[in-house]
Amino acid sequence: MDNVATAKLNPQVQQPQYARQHLKSRIVHLGFGAFHRAHQALFTDEMLTKTESDWGICEINLFGGEALITQLRAQDHLYTVAEKGADKTDIKLIGAVTESLHPTFEGQEAVLEKMAEPQVAIVSMTITEKGYCADPASGRLDKENPLIKADLAHPQSPDSAIGYIVEALRRRRDRNLTAFTVMSCDNVQENGHVARAAIMDYAHLIDTELASWIESNVTFPCTMVDRIVPAATAETLDEIASLVGVADPCGIACEPFRQWVIEDNFVNGRPDWDIAGAEFVTDVVPYEEMKLRMLNGSHSFLAYLGYLGGYAHISDTMTNPHYRQAAYDMMMQAQAPSLNMPEGTDLESYARLLIDRFTNPSLKHQTWQIAMDGSQKIPQRLGGSLRYHLANGSEFSWLAMGVAGWMRYIAGQDEQGNTIDVRDPMIDQFQALYAQAGISTQAARQLLALESIFGTDLPKEAKFVNAVIDAYQHLCDHGARHAVASLCQ
After folding, report:
1. Which of 9, 209, 309, 451 has its CA 20 to 30 A from that of 138?
2. For residue 28, what are the β-bridge partners?
3. pLDDT reading at 420 higher than 90
4. Measuring CA to CA, which residue among 273, 129, 147 is closest to residue 202?
């Protein structure tokens, strides 16, 4: 059966213009998900088009995704990205991937040996917040995490990404090989520091000498990544097939906008991603906080209150003028004042760009998808700005409503009494809490006491607690649409 590697593709498909056979697996990437396909792999593909470089990528899924890896191999590791603007769609065939591995197919040993190969200079990750096995409150390794407990018992046959990286680095040290750079591309604040803390904590628990070697030889650059990449649906794949001329089960659709800001701190060389539009800087933190608070924070606000309001997609929420205005006001009045940006940064233009991106009707970005894993996201997206406003006595009603929207969403029942398929690492705890308290302000108060989400400080702030309880009660009494409209008065 023909695929993107063997079929004659439609003429509008932009195909790789470089010799793929000369690429080497110099990057090992953990997490061959939708975002990576439309972001880092695409940047690498465009960099290869403009250089004579040999920076190829070996893709590894540690958990799940077996079918995706099988499909990728069947089409010579080629796949398509559809960049969908409001007016036109560009379709690109990505050739930067050289090979793929999965512990289910090849075993743990093959994965570890690949990471230990001499030419591998970067191990990058898109493993989501929970993949770092970190305690959200402390930012340190969660030693009680089941994966970590299992890995500590058998460090040479790990399951977690943290365990794989440390064991691969141990092998490189023992073979006198240069270390690799560990590069997080997850939407996590100071992601390089989070990765470093988890890896160093784990290494100290198994081998203090190895931990010292890692500390001296490995770098953990922070990165800020930005592109809206909805999960692929049957409808998306049908559309890609019609554009390409053949089905591509690995294809992905995304918005035209993309941004990648990278701390230039690599121990063993790096690709010239800046040729493809990435930006190398000395400090990523201001850009991260701008994106996490203004884009991701408002995205979460729209996801919870949009889902509860009956909107399936972010672009649907933008058809409601109250949601549109509330999202913009949240960016400019709640999030922007809390930021410390380089001189000349135009946050108002950034906010308007975000509203335009959210409005793009070609992107079917589900509110349900963005609503996943809220217990891991709320602290980063809303916590810092909440603390800023509490310290300065300024207005934070949008943030309080966002927190209340999350609390009402994880009750697992929408405003019509239908079940919500809540996906979250803390779902068992939430279900037990709601089973006891019901959808009530009592449940909201119990949720506010969770230190892993709100720390020890926020639950003691009466102004914050009262604002969230009032917003939660408003949601229960009047529904999400009315609650969002009330923010615009």
Report:
1. 209
2. 58, 123
3. yes
4. 147
